[in-house]
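Quick one: structure tokens for this chain, please?
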Amino acid sequence: MALVVGVDAGGTASRAVVATSAGTIVGRGQAGPGNPLTAGPDQAAAAVATAVRTALQGHDPAAVRAATLGIAGPAAMFAPALSALGITAPITVVGDVVTAFAAGSSAASGTVLIAGTGAIAATISDHTVVRTSDGLGWLLGDEGSGRWLGLHAVRTAVRAWDTPFAARVAAHAGVPTADAMVYWAQALPWDSIGALAPLVCAAARAGDPHATTLVAAAVGRLVRTLDDLHADGPVVLAGGLLTGDTPVRDGVLSTLHARGCRPRTARDPAAGAAWLAARPLSDLSPAALHAALSGTP
């Protein structure tokens, strides 16, 4: 039985899928961050290897005929990590935006908008990135992302300290005063700052005016990032803020629906990577194989 491996190596976690060439997922694995730009090359490679090893449990690595890895950043170190597991099949590395698009559409070309820890939009042509907008990191961009929401939540809190919103942020940070919040933020506790995004979303759902303003600003920036590409074809929404039940997703969908655009939602980027790997090996049509791996009709 021919197997394929698909990997989604992100800044928060690495996820792996092992599937048959007929579109049946037979194994899954998860480990730590697999983005070499944020986790470091050695730790990223180790995380990806751990996720793949877990997904392969009970299966012969020699049966793997192809592997596709979706990774943001350089990836020369990943092939040796998988070879050490006994995988000798060809390994293809693509941008994580390509696997995110593949997780939502079987089309070869279109546009993907991602908002998770970071934010980026990309034009995809024949499963290749031809243009991007944003994706510039927390210092220079990633506007509308989870980390962007967290940073702006902290900034709002220290400027509007005597508000319920500031109290929520202070409780999250574990600080008693605005001055203490400043010192807390200066240490750049990125995981804690990014973890404020769900707090902002929940507060916006509850009608908090500061949170509502931040969510609206995030929606506006994400739509502007998408508009910067002026692309045709299907639009796929990916990343936790745009695939989960969040007011950010609601706002982006409302804006796009008003324009007559009906975007698709990415389901599992690791399965999207497995689909890319399996296409040349499968007897199924690309659309049928995609439906089988994504679990959609």
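The mean pLDDT is 92.
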